[in-house]
Write a structure and sequence with these properties.
This protein is of the alpha/beta class. It has 12 helices and 12 strands. It has a 6-stranded parallel beta sheet, with helices on both faces. A 4-stranded parallel beta sheet has the order 3-4-5-6, sandwiched between helices. A two-stranded parallel ribbon has the order 1-2. Helix 4 links the parallel strand 5 and strand 6. Helix 1 packs across helix 12, helix 5 crosses helix 10 and helix 8 packs across helix 11. The longest helix is centred in the C-terminal third of the chain and has 21 residues. The protein starts with 15 loop residues before the first helix and ends with a helix. The relative contact order is 0.12.
Length: 343
């Protein structure tokens, strides 16, 4: 299994794809599979770690180094059944002609050209997954060989809370950037008279730093609206579990949004703008509300009592738990292997 080299697996704080990789690796190992992971040298994975030599995917020299490592591992490790990439497809280039099954998983917007090139070089041994239909559709005309496997969460890491106090805060959790909509979360909190906790990484330079300094920081009074910075997994569990709702007012076509599944695991409903994969996670009126405007988000806050937090947790258990997601990848592996041996 491969992932991009910039962030350790599991990540210390921010790192969405790396969390998914860690979850899948642990699940596969628990099911008795032998897993090697090419990743950042500081990774603490229970798999056999092959530390990347190159640390920057944007560097041509580092990228070539890492491609060669993938090739060397494919040739050196005994009985490789599947090569599964959660990183850049480019890292698979040296092994694409090999007959071994390759799976390329996308958690971000897809470049159609890279998919076409991968298919040509992979000679029908390369299969694709996407974390949502919204993500898959960015490939243009994806055609066959695509499987939708959503992101998920290690369910045991999240504490279900059946009830929260009447004055429980709203929560915004994510990178504090304009496309994530922290400014909208502030507007919703102000208009509903609810407390708001903002958590997540913020930029320290460039346009996103200016956005934070001009539109977020002045609104944070430390009492009604608080910015608490990046949070650990344990802090995230407490923050989401004690919230009345997660605000997810995105301004872009989010391929998935793992924080939505994390909130549901705690029993916390999600109030989100209807963009990207939101309607693939949030069932309107059951585990949250899909909204088309700020006014609709404000109205949804008033309707939170209609949401049963047990239904939120149940949705996560049924669709986004680690066990469910790992089993889906296993079924894909076996299906691809069977297809290759019978074709």
């Amino acid at each position: 299994m491969t992932v991009d080299p910039e962030i350790p697996v599991p990540p210390h704080q921010y790192g969405g794809i790396e969390r998914i990789v860690d979850m899948v690796v642990r699940g596969l190992l628990e099911h008795g599979h032998d897993v090697s992971l090419l990743a950042h040298p500081a990774s603490t994975t229970p798999a056999r770690l092959v530390p990347y030599r190159g640390q920057r995917s944007g560097s041509l020299v580092d990228a070539v180094r890492n491609m060669l490592q993938v090739w060397q591992c494919a040739r050196a490790l005994p009985r490789v059944s599947v090569i599964h990439s959660f990183g850049r497809l480019a890292y698979l280039l040296p092994v694409l002609p090999l007959p071994v099954v390759k799976v390329q998983s996308y958690q971000r917007h897809i470049t159609p050209r890279s998919v076409r090139l991968g298919r040509e070089l992979g000679r029908q041994s390369l299969y694709f997954t996407a974390c949502s239909r919204a993500c898959r559709d960015t490939a243009g005309s994806p055609g066959g060989l695509w499987t939708i496997i959503p992101n998920g969460v290690p369910l045991a890491s999240y504490t279900f809370r059946a009830t929260v106090p009447d004055d429980a805060p709203l929560v915004f959790l994510g990178r504090v950037e304009r496309i994530k909509g922290a400014h909208t979360a502030i507007e919703v909190a102000r208009r509903t008279g609810r407390r708001l906790v903002i958590a997540g990484n913020r930029a320290t330079s460039g346009p996103e730093s200016t956005y934070f300094e001009r539109e977020i920081a002045p609104a944070c009074d430390g009492m009604i609206i608080r910015y608490v910075g990046p949070v650990t997994d344990a802090q995230k569990n407490d923050l989401l579990g004690q919230a009345a709702a997660l605000l997810f007012p995105i301004e872009w076509e989010e391929p998935f949004g793992i924080v939505m599944a994390e909130a549901l695991a705690c029993g916390t409903p999600v109030l989100a703008f209807l963009r990207g994969a939101v309607n693939e996670v949030v069932e309107h009126g059951v585990n949250g509300f899909c909204c088309a405007s700020v006014d609709a988000l404000v109205d949804a806050v008033a309707e939170l009592d209609a949401i049963d937090r047990r239904q939120c947790r149940a949705a996560c258990e049924a669709r986004f738990s680690d066990e469910v997601i790992v089993r889906q990848y296993e079924r894909l592996y076996y299906s691809c292997l069977t297809e290759r041996t019978t074709s």
